[in-house]
Amino acid sequence: MSHATTMDRTTGRRAVLKGASGLVGLAALQGCAPGARLAALPPPGTGGGGGRARLVPLRVTRDQLIDVKCCIRPLRAAGPNLAAETVGDALVIHNYGHGGSGWSLSWGSAEIAVGKALTTLPSEIAVVGCGIIGLTTAVVAQRAGLKVTIYAREMIQRTRSFRASGSFTPGSRIALAEPAGPQFPAEWEAMARLSWKAFRTCLGLPGKPVDFGDSYALSDKPIEKRHWTPDPAITGNWRTTGLPQQNSEFAHLDDRIKDIVPQGVNLGPDENPFALPYAQRTTQMYFNFPSYAKMLMDEFFGHGGRFVMRDFHSPAEFAGLPQKVVIHCTGYAARDLWRDQTIIPVRGQTGWLAPQTEANYAVRYKNVMLLSKADGVAVMNNNPDMGDMLGVGNSMELATIADIEAGLALIAPALTPRAA
Hints:
Layout: H1 13-21, H2 23-27, E1 65-76, E2 84-87, E3 90-94, H3 102-118, E4 124-128, H4 132-143, E5 147-152, H5 177-180, H6 184-200, E6 210-219, H7 238-241, E7 265-266, E8 278-287, H8 289-302, E9 306-309, E10 325-328, H9 334-337, E11 343-353, E12 361-365, E13 368-373, E14 376-381, H10 401-411
Parallel strand pairs: 3-10, 4-5, 4-10, 5-9, 6-12
Antiparallel strand pairs: 1-11, 2-3, 6-8, 7-8, 11-14, 12-13, 13-14
């Protein structure tokens, strides 16, 4: 059976239009009937018993480092651009500017863009760009019955999408609260919920394109959730400088979907598998890039999709395409291609250790996070005191291996298992 038949598929234009127009309403749905009660649950914020997990230790020595990747995330001040405009005789629908949330919002964002395309009743469309947003959009359009051609400089494996870390982070640098406006949180929530539902249909497939694993936050002192309040000493902001100046300017929306996304629980001494005194555990969704890309590419080409290798230098070139409905998904490249100067570069970097699939978990301690997946162990060395401001305005894409080496040295002692 093909992957396409295993998913909750949108099989007709009417269904896609209905799904796109009803996204905001979807966000308001609640899962349980009024008055429903669960008995004998452990208190919120506790590990809930079950004893101490026996974890295979992660090897974080320098000899395991096989790659370092740098990626520019397209933070757009008002959030993703999903507007439509005409260029010559072509209708162009935008789908770019997702910050650090492109993977996580890809399905919900694609449903909106394709829904707008279908209002013109085309038989075929073009998608410009083949990162995770472009390729997902192409697949969603095919499921709606459209013939699709992707125009892009490179396939997904060579795009910035393949230089991400690969975890479900739908609220990561998605927008600035003030320019995004009061309607944006509900729009974001709808995209996040729809994407979460789509990703869950990929669980258990060959190659594990989507999977879950435990994630541990470790600390020398009690772990508390951080709240970013405005600093009155900082007088500049995005409006006056063109860049955000503090974390309180960002839209922080993750609490809107905490009913479906596992939340952190504190572990007691009998549950904490690490030697450090404080640990918090959650369960994290993540993506294995090679198998996920293969899943999408197999479906795209299996349904007659065409890929044309091409670069674009101006919006006017879109009008020269044979397809007269075009969905524009070029990510950070839209800053120059579409002259969208509201896109702010946000630099990110990951190191990659050789895969350690027997150690299926993630760990965060101080500056460093490790995420073990089938395609390798992602290593991030990021100062948590910077919050969302880390990398803002930095468009340098050269990797700095010394930061990853320092991160490995910092986290290695924290991985010591707790004595029996």
